[in-house]
Design brief:
- The protein is built from 5 helices and 13 strands.
- The protein has 256 residues and is an alpha+beta fold.
- The strands form 3 sheets. It has a 6-stranded mixed beta barrel. The chain has a 4-stranded antiparallel beta sheet with strand order 11-12-10-13.
- The chain is elongated and about 70 Å long.
């Protein structure tokens, strides 16, 4: 059978289109914002380079629904419904381990890396501001973003509860010392013991420093004396913790 060139191209083209779509990052092409009123910039978060949070950046599951974290994403822009959350979560931990302050200018997103920065535009009134994403959600219907009470107030959506918004990912410039900042962020501190006997703490500190050749310090806190080792780079800290647990310090743990 003879295959004509144009027949081969027609058969092969759908495969190319399918491959291109399957490898595409979420929403790479920003939609056009159409407003009947001028944009109003509101003071919000100031984007800055931050290393990825130690927690909250792995794929996860909520109510049996799997969610993928878009680590390494460069571009993201879309439109949808935003809501806000406040008093019921105030003072509790966010998904990246920070304490939630409902008056901070922050937000929750299901897929973006933590932390991330988004420019949020309320398409109903033209207000826009930059928020810092440090939490996961919303997990209600088709909402794309959950704003803190502080952010929702500035965007003018507290009363209505929800609003149609455009969100755009902002990538802060990567500084020259980015690798150093990431290494410092990933460093770990080990707490070896806590005692009300300062002499015991100092004695153990001296012994551990001699045996393992690592910097130690005694920290006074709430009438207790805690022995800390480090901070150390993550691989070294993990090896040391394993050695300590096998050397009679079964209660040792990572402080951060």
């Amino acid at each position: 059978m003879v295959i004509k060139p144009y027949s081969f191209f027609c058969c092969f083209l759908p495969l190319l289109l399918l491959a291109a779509c399957s490898s595409r990052q979420p929403d790479p092409a920003p939609p056009v914002v159409r407003l009947n009123k001028p944009l109003i910039d509101v003071n919000g978060a100031v984007p800055r380079f931050e290393p990825p949070s130690r927690i909250g950046n792995k794929d996860y599951e909520v109510y049996g629904q799997p969610y993928k974290v878009w680590n390494g994403i460069d571009h993201y822009s879309t439109q949808g419904t935003a809501s806000w959350y406040g008093p019921g979560f105030h003072g509790k931990y966010t998904s990246n381990g920070e304490l939630y302050n409902q008056e901070d200018i922050s937000a929750a997103h299901k897929n973006l890396p933590l932390p991330s920065y988004l420019r949020v535009t309320n398409l109903d009134n033209g207000r826009r501001l930059i928020v810092r994403v440090n939490d996961r959600g919303p997990f209600h219907g088709d909402r794309i973003l959950d704003l803190s009470h502080g952010a929702a107030s500035r965007l003018g959506i507290v009363g209505a509860g929800t609003a149609k918004v455009q969100v755009e990912l902002i990538q802060p410039p990567r500084p020259a010392n980015a690798k150093q900042l990431i290494a410092q962020h990933e460093s770990r501190t080990i707490q070896l013991l806590a005692t009300n006997d300062v002499r015991k703490a100092k004695q153990v500190a001296s012994d551990v420093q001699r045996r393992f050749g690592v910097e130690s310090r005694v920290v006074a806190m709430n009438q207790m004396y805690k022995l800390h080792l480090g901070p150390l780079e993550k691989p070294q800290a993990e090896r040391l913790l394993s050695k300590l647990k096998g050397s009679g310090f079964g209660g040792a743990f990572f402080l951060n």
